[in-house]
Specification:
This protein is mainly α and 356 residues long. It has 16 helices and 4 strands. It is a multi-pass membrane protein.
């Protein structure tokens, strides 16, 4: 047994403690922990395929700008919250990684949309901008919001993350960055200072949010749930209006869907579900957020199956307009386009080929 586990006489699973540093005593809880880390792996790799796709195509026409903006704001809030509440360095580093990837996506978006076009045109030349490029960028600005994902933590860590987001809002509201960034103390000496007449306004604000963190966390959790449920809509609408998913990496949504699926499953198989009556009630916002987002991920996967090859669908439509002649044997010819110089209206013959 590792020194990190309590010496309570319960046999813990050694390999999980060695790899993950968690003290797990039964297989059900172990499976829940493994799913949690699987969620983490999926979300770590979710955005990388889109970065590669943008670089290869030298274009971001398939992405919705509000989709990226919502993603970035959510990750910045998570990062600031982790700093303000003095969470584990691993969590802060992970949130910083998400922010860095988001900024790279934004850099690609504006580089391939504006900068690259302006630099490839010589002075005096017309700007060779395709109508689709300008229109898709205009449409992306007018569209809605995007999915922001949650960090896959256990029950108490999820509540800490929600509280951290509250303090991030407090940072911008009360303009007290330095005072809020300090670690909150729950010692009696701190509580006694709350009644001091000379206590600063920021101190009163800290005390208020500390005492009401659970209620505020629930409210914020439901707000986040609404954002999760509506986050994919801009990208879904963009795909629908374009009748195309060109430029969109489907692996980004596959990884996100797998992450949401494993996260939801880890909640349902957690042993606390059967022992803590309040567990499920506290986890309802996260369950709805992850399962609801998963439904929209599936919608995008369906769109990808329908819109992924517009040229192939165009060929199939043209093949339906074939002509057939003959009584015994029926042959098919695809009608040529009107600008085909070899097209001849001679009876029974097209391009020298006889109907059969």
């Amino acid at each position: 047994m590792s020194d990190g586990c309590n010496s309570d006489g319960i046999a813990h699973i050694q390999w999980i403690n060695t790899i993950f540093g968690s003290c797990i005593s039964d297989n059900q809880e172990a499976f829940s922990v493994i799913l949690g880390y699987l969620t983490l792996v999926c979300w770590l790799n979710a955005q990388l395929p889109q970065l590669i796709t943008n670089y290869r195509n030298k274009s971001v026409e398939g992405l919705s700008l509000p989709f990226l903006l919502n993603w970035l704001l959510g990750d910045i809030t998570n990062f600031l919250g982790g700093i303000l509440t003095d969470q584990l360095k691993f969590q802060i580093y992970l949130a910083a990684y998400f922010c860095i990837v988001d900024f790279i996506l934004f850099f690609q978006y504006f580089y391939y949309t504006w900068y690259q076009i302006s630099t490839i045109v010589e002075p005096g030349e017309d700007i060779p901008v395709r109508p689709l490029s300008t229109q898709s960028f205009k449409d992306s600005i007018l569209e809605g919001a995007r999915k922001s994902y949650t960090f896959p933590t256990r029950k108490n860590q999820s509540h800490q993350r929600l509280s951290s987001m509250v303090f991030a809002v407090l940072l911008f509201t009360f303009h007290s960055t330095s005072s809020i960034s300090s670690s909150f103390s729950t010692s009696p000496s701190y509580l006694s200072t709350a009644h001091d007449d000379e206590m600063s306004f920021s101190g009163h604000a800290k005390l208020f949010f500390e005492r009401n963190s659970e209620s505020i966390g629930r409210i914020l959790a439901w707000i986040c749930t609404v954002l999760y449920l509506t986050s994919r809509m801009p990208q879904i609408w963009k795909n629908y209006t374009r009748r195309s998913v060109e430029g969109l990496s489907i692996f980004m949504f596959i990884f996100a869907a797998l992450g949401n699926l494993s996260y939801s499953t880890s909640i349902f198989i957690n042993p606390s579900l059967g022992t803590d009556p309040k567990y499920l009630r506290k986890e309802v916002p996260y369950i709805l957020g992850s399962i609801g987002t998963l439904a929209f991920d599936v919608t995008i996967l369906i769109q990808w199956c329908i819109f992924r090859d517009p040229e192939h669908r165009h060929r199939k439509r043209r093949s339906r307009h074939s002509v057939s002649y003959g009584s015994d044997n029926i042959g098919y010819y695809q009608l040529p386009t009107t600008d085909d110089e070899s097209y001849s209206r001679r009876s029974g013959q097209i391009d020298g080929g006889n109907f059969v």
